[in-house]
Amino acid sequence: MYFYAYNLHKMLIYFKTGNYKSIKDPITLNFNAAAISEHTDSNVIEDESLPLLKSILLYGPNASGKSKILDAFAMFKWLINNSATEKQGNEQIEVESFQLSEVTENKPSFFEACFTLDENRYRYGFEVDKEKIHKEWLLESKATKEYPVFLRIGDQFEITGKRFPNAEGLERRTRKNALFLSVASQWNVKKAEQINDWFSRIFTIHGVSDELYKNVTLDLLKDKKHADEVKSFIQKADLGIQSIELTNVPLYRGSKDLPRELRNTLITEEWPAVFTLHQKFNENGEVIGSARFLLEDQESEGTQKYFNLIGVFIKAIAEDRIVVIDEFDARLHTLLTKSVIKLFNSSKTKSKAQLLAASHDTALLDRDLLRRDQIYFVEKNRYGASEVTSLVEYKPRKESPYDKNYLEGKYGAIPFIDSLETLVAHG
User: Fold this and answer.
1) For residue 84, what are the domain limits?
2) pTM
3) pLDDT of residue 202 exceeding 60
4) What letter does residue 43 receive in the DSSP assignment?
């Protein structure tokens, strides 16, 4: 594993959100490690007095709100990175409050994160609706005390110059639909730039749209320093692939989507094609060479997804990045997803990368893989609002079979599905 020159003191402590889509009352995903004696030599980032979890998995039935929680994090990140540049004039902000209660439907959504940056701890958040930013705050912690860096309520700003130098006056350049932090970053305020840059480096992925990240893997494969890493990830996944090759080939018009007479029309540009190499045998079972398969056409969707995400995993581990991924286990075998979780939880990599993922694969509910505080259950209450509970709050015995207990309903967050047979049964 090649490590990059990157600051090792940027980590997520918690993320909190409320009144957003299916989330009514604020919920918190807490990366602070609980005081439990499980996987203390791994799974936890020991940073002086602040032990933080390396991964958290969300479980719950369909429509419980797992995706909405991860979507809230993606929205939080997007507004930090883009609200100063993407939003213009009176353009609306794409947030949605909880609509099943008259108490919340016309109130702003809430987002907040606590994180470390260099030697300091920060708490940053905001309240926002479709029209404007209602409140925004950035606080810095030293020891046990918090100090305001800036506070914003409506059009009123309070900026602490010594903690946020060169930001004075930028409030006049901040539109009502833009975050002050995002504006300050655009105007080269160092602390704002550092925070903005850290959030921009977080990978937010939907597990069935993994092709959007294929270029991350391709870039590593093109680099001689990292090509062997990518190949090793493929070889160790037991996909029957000996190696992979990257070759530029002529680009043809989309063969499946165009009329037959246009399918072989040559376009002058070339595109990078990934070929997988498989052993080829004679009638005696002896290896006689290799067969080349085009990844996009001849390999399974699971193999393609894994390839697309290899670059994300390598860069996250090497550069201490956060990976947020929905539908994590979609199209991937249980043992392969377990291997990825072990990679993030490992003490061998010396990495401070963190993983936040949603899954339906109960085989991952394994005490040999995860601590109790790394498992969160998501379910909706009788009012249609998503709630989260950490497994550690149920206080199960360490030897309890988490997956069996979960499927038996002991932790909630499972679907109660009526028999579908009665819908088609004939008398």
Assistant:
1) 10-202+321-407
2) 0.88
3) yes
4) S
